[in-house]
Amino acid sequence: MKLDITTLEGGNAGSVDLNETIFGLEPRADLLARCVRWQLAKRQAGTHAVKNRSDIDRTTKKVYKQKGTGSARHGAASAPQFRGGGRAFGPQVRSHAHDLPKKVRALALKHALSSKAKDASLVVIDDVKLAEPKTKALVERFGKLGLGNALIIGGAEIETNFQRAARNIPNIDVLPVQGINVYDILRREKLVLTKSAVDALEARFK
């Protein structure tokens, strides 16, 4: 698969041959959904908690006598039925993370990349470097390239000026190539890869 390489100024910088085993797959929605669910579950805080019956500081004196009242047999005011009592089966602090095989994660990333390539939402750029960290100038360049909602993947390190200029732009995410993930790819309309990011991804899945 051949794709043109552009520059930040909108010029042409040649072309690149994309690996069909990474960018040419038929996207599978089930794999993408599994990986997104795994990512979101893993980052969920799980700090929600309530007081159950054993956590309530109330008297343990029997509410009323066992027999003869015609009412249910209660032994403590901390029971869930009473106002101020403990919560029955409420949420507790826990991890929501679950396992997903490494091979499934790798395959899902390939399918996410392929989905962007299939939708013509994949842009390859030669490099992301700026002389000055000016957000306004970068917004103008993105406007010429049609990047209003995009994930930009650079090399092993993002150039400081570019990172500073891009961090104030809404709907624009910038990540180094080692931080690429399925959820961030799918949540943005376009995926922008630098030439070094393409080389790194092809080396990773070799």
TrEMBL record:
SUPFAM superfamilies per the UniProt record, alphabetical: Ribosomal protein L4
Pfam family, one: Ribosomal_L4
Xref: Gene3D superfamilies: 3.40.1370.10
InterPro entries, per the entry: Ribosomal_uL4 (IPR002136), Ribosomal_uL4-like (IPR013005), Ribosomal_uL4_dom_sf (IPR023574)
Keywords, alphabetical: Ribonucleoprotein, Ribosomal protein, RNA-binding, rRNA-binding
Gene Ontology molecular-function annotations: rRNA binding; structural constituent of ribosome
Single Gene Ontology BP annotation: translation
Superkingdom field: Bacteria
GO cellular component, one term: ribosome
UniProt keyword Glycosyltransferase, yes or no: no
Keyword tRNA processing: no
Chain spans, region Disordered: 64-95
Functional note: Forms part of the polypeptide exit tunnel. One of the primary rRNA binding proteins, this protein initially binds near the 5'-end of the 23S rRNA. It is important during the early stages of 50S assembly. It makes multiple contacts with different domains of the 23S rRNA in the assembled 50S subunit and ribosome.
Family: Belongs to the universal ribosomal protein uL4 family.
Assembly description: Part of the 50S ribosomal subunit.
Descriptive protein name: Large ribosomal subunit protein uL4
Organism per entry: Microvirga lotononidis
